[in-house]
Amino acid sequence: xxxxxxxxxxxxxxxxxxxxxxxxxxxxxxxxxxxxxxxxxxxxxxxxxxxxxxxxxxxxxxxxxxxxxxxxxxxxxxxxxxxxxxxxxxxxxxxxxxxxxxxxxxxxxxxxxxxxxxxxxxxxxxxxxxxxxxxxxxxxxxxxxxxxxxxxxxxxxxxxxxxxxxxxxxxxxxxxxxxxxxxxxxxxxxxxxxxxxxxxxxxxxxxxxxxxxxxxxxxxxxxxxxxxxxxxxxxxxxxxxxxxxxxxxxxxxxxxxxxxxxxxxxxxxxxxxxxxxxxxxxxxxxxxxxxxxxxxxxxxxxxxxxxxxxxxxxxxxxxxxxxxxxxxxxxxxxxxxxxxxxxxxxxxxxxxxxxxxxxxxxxxxxxxxxxxxxxxxxxxxxxxxxxxxxxxxxxxxxxxxxxxxxxxxxxxxxxxxxxxxxxxxxxxxxxxxxxxxxxxxxxxxxx
Length: 447
Known about the structure:
This protein is an alpha/beta fold. It folds into two domains: 16-30 and 58-231 and 431-445, Glycogen Phosphorylase B (Rossmann fold), CATH 3.40.50.2000; 237-427, Rossmann fold (3-Layer(aba) Sandwich), CATH 3.40.50.2000. 47% of the residues lie in helices and 14% in strands. It has helices spanning 16-46, 48-57, 79-84, 86-95, 108-117, 131-141, 155-163, 177-186, 204-212, 237-250, 268-279, 295-303, 312-317, 336-340, 361-365, 380-388, 398-409, 412-427, 432-445, and strands at 71-75, 100-105, 122-125, 145-149, 168-173, 198-201, 220-222, 258-264, 284-289, 309-311, 327-329, 345-348, 369-372, 392-394. The protein has a seven-stranded parallel beta sheet, sandwiched between helices. The chain has a seven-stranded parallel beta sheet with strand order 10-11-9-8-12-13-14. Helix 4 (86-95) crosses helix 19. The protein is globular and about 70 Å long.
């Protein structure tokens, strides 16, 4: 196509002033690290996981990857972005089985989920945005193309990719109104969006924001939300084994309604348990904190309410016998979707607190009646999709959460209608991955 712009393989913003700006940006990183170094050293001395993470983000411990025909680096910040990359990885592999795909993430949970979803793939930690850390990372990975899931714009990383001739694409792109306003402040001092070869975005609303921030009209394409393509997993024997194991450990007795709180943030676990005890005391209650490292704190807080909390890991070890009258706490990574298969009603966390919500399409795809709070800024489109077809309920506060849980727990036909509407709505969103693959191949991988 004559109108298709070529991938960006040169620095579009050269010059002494730009170099000085990046030098100043590096200096800010160094000052911040120096000021926080006492805290970092203390944590590194007492927490091996933090010590390993810090060294990896500085670029240490990553060996040069072996020579290959072509290599793509796909980066997702944490769990949601890593899971969102799964359909694209499958599509790229089907398109070119010899393509070497490397997955990077920033958080420990993101890396853990990446290892589960992409067994056999090379999984690496994304570096901090210091010039020499980024340069070391890119030299070791030696990618031909970089793909950023949703939005991960770091000035030095993009600049180093340009200078090394590595095209960068943003896929499943989204940019909230708050992020857009923040980027507007800095677009003149650190223009970054003009360094990106391709934007494959979820909505026209996001596309317009990217264009206004410096993404050329011809480089921004609306392809839809890839996460919908990854929500319907093939029902394999291994998956069914996991679901049945979970059912035996944290599932309900016959006829008992199961209510799950997924991806919760403090203090939502306590609020949810209080609501369930008041509204549906006979329900089977399962809590899945967004960060499993909080599980011990959650267990202690729930015990103070007078309920009997049980950790999934303890049940698996046989330390305790399942108690359907207690609250089960899932303190593992990568099992949320399987837990949703046990649920009748799901409360999606991060929404009663001002976090911005979590992905409500995940329980919707599993055929659950979905409930969430008022704070869904990060998933406004997904919430609107479900609400339009009557597949979800948005509650204003804890009091309304109690009443809605009581209503849905007592009305099986209403739950069934919501579940069927939810699955239909999510299935209609499928197809974004094929559009994204086509754009990546023609604009970044063809040269």
